[in-house]
Amino acid sequence: MSQFENVTVIKQANVYFDGKVISRTLLFEDGSRKSLGIMQPGTFTFGTQSAELMEILTGDIEVQLPGVGGWRRILGGESFEVPADSSFTVKVNELTDYCCSYLP
């Protein structure tokens, strides 16, 4: 899906890691939530409250997921899931555009 219909966009940006990761929150009529963002090159660790589906729209990252040894390379067009109440680390190799869906 290349676009979303009937959403509310929170104008205030979510800014992390001194501006190297920036996203905007989208709220849907059914109560679901997503964020659309950009990650600049670097290594970043994120914490989760709910489970997440991370779709890499464009870019090149490596991810280290909880309970999984080693790094997994993810390119534009690929995705990965992160469990709730955990953390994961990404190495961003090039400017990366992503969509994060917060799962029930």
From TrEMBL:
Could you give one GO CC term from the UniProt record?
A: cytosol
Q: What is its EC number?
A: 2.4.2.1, 2.4.2.2
By its UniProt entry, which SUPFAM superfamilies does this protein fall under?
RmlC-like cupins
What is this enzyme's catalytic activity, as reactions? Answer: adenosine + phosphate = alpha-D-ribose 1-phosphate + adenine; cytidine + phosphate = cytosine + alpha-D-ribose 1-phosphate; uridine + phosphate = alpha-D-ribose 1-phosphate + uracil; a purine D-ribonucleoside + phosphate = a purine nucleobase + alpha-D-ribose 1-phosphate
For this UniProt entry, the molecular function terms from Gene Ontology, in alphabetical order, are: guanosine phosphorylase activity; purine-nucleoside phosphorylase activity; thymidine phosphorylase activity; uridine phosphorylase activity
Which key words are in the record? Glycosyltransferase, Transferase
Domain of life from the UniProt record: Bacteria
Checking Pfam families in the record gives: Ppnp
What task does this protein carry out?
Catalyzes the phosphorolysis of diverse nucleosides, yielding D-ribose 1-phosphate and the respective free bases. Can use uridine, adenosine, guanosine, cytidine, thymidine, inosine and xanthosine as substrates. Also catalyzes the reverse reactions.
What family is reported? Belongs to the nucleoside phosphorylase PpnP family.
Protein name, per record: Pyrimidine/purine nucleoside phosphorylase
Species annotation: Thiorhodococcus drewsii AZ1
Gene label: ppnP
